[in-house]
Amino acid sequence: MPKVSMFLFTTPQSRDAQPANPVVSAIRQGAEKTGAGFDYLLKTAQRESSLEPDAKAKTSSATGLFQFIEQTWLSMVKQEGPKQGLSQYADAISESGGRLTVSDPAAREKILQLRNDPQVAAVMAGALTQKNRDQLAGALGRSPQGGELYMAHVLGARGASDLIRTAASDPSRVAARDFPEAAAANRSIFYDKAGRARSVQEVYGVLAASHASTQVAAATTQGAQSGQGDTPEVEIAAALRPGRAKGLVGLFSTGGSRDPVSKAVANLWTTPIQGGTRMASLAGGERYFPRPGQSDANAASDASASASAASAMPVAAGKVVSAPLPPSRPSELSPSTVTAAPQPVGKARRAPLDLSSFMTRRGGA
Predict the structure, then answer these.
(1) Residue 339: strand pairing partners
(2) Does 52 participate in catalysis according to the annotation?
(3) CA angle centred on 291, ends 286 and 294, rounded to 5°
(4) How many domains does the structure of the chain reveal?
(5) pLDDT tens digits for range 319-358
(6) Three-class secondary structure of residue 106 per DSSP
(7) Which of 15, 182, 248, 315 yields a CA-CA distance of 20 to 30 A from 214?
(8) Whole domain around residue 208: which residue ranges?
(9) Catalytic one among 32, 48, 95, 202?
């Protein structure tokens, strides 16, 4: 009986329930402590380390969940350590010649090993995100997007602001020229699979792709906090050019790719090159649906290119349209040969019935 009563008033634990991922839980706690967006930190950790706390880069000193390099990590521990109960480690870090150092090798190793602790790494990543956000907002005069915050995570706040501005002013510039160290450590970002150096605009698109429409702040009651109401200096969609990082961005944001879905649609969206016709090299869709707006001069030159071609082109509103002629009307349906259909033979239609003979006049008339 007690077992039955317990079953009636308690909910049995699901057999399929899985324990919470400790790494994800640590990232959530770090977001709550620092005010950074949980989904931004989660996407950053996924891209940086695939959620592996002990991940280590082969081309740099980057280590841990968020791939902090040594100098960035020492800087964050020095600034944020006292707030997070790490005062003893923060006090051991000193500045010498523009670099942060730790005189005790054992203490230095312990401090750097903290990068492999998901809870500490998540807190430092959240604090770094807020710091980069403030610096980018001051440099750009607006709230940064999630992808732009990730640029600051990779290049630093100053490097990210330089990349964003260059993408707006000189998008075709080779990005590796301005960021040689970052390019050497992140070849997949600055170079495509063929080894071609990507432009600044392409690098912007690669970095922004995985963080498009990402919540960048824990509190999103106001659009200004999350950056959702701001128009970026360089639209993410405009930066997603060939060679960009491809993913499911279009499913979760309105700033995704607007490339045509097929060659036929691409032909319909573009205007013929002036001085010639594209009809010979185009798919059937464009030949049957020519673009309006060709100039009279272009249409005339196209029509005079060949007498036979000109005779096969219909003229509409004074412009030659490169479209096939419809089939000619059969001669038996020509207006000159069509005669009125004979009336069917039958009884003549009677006149309308006169009702006056059925009406009785008043007054004896």
Answers:
(1) none
(2) no
(3) 130
(4) 3
(5) 555 556 666 666 666 655 545 555 555 556 666 766 666 6
(6) helix
(7) 182
(8) 142-259
(9) 48
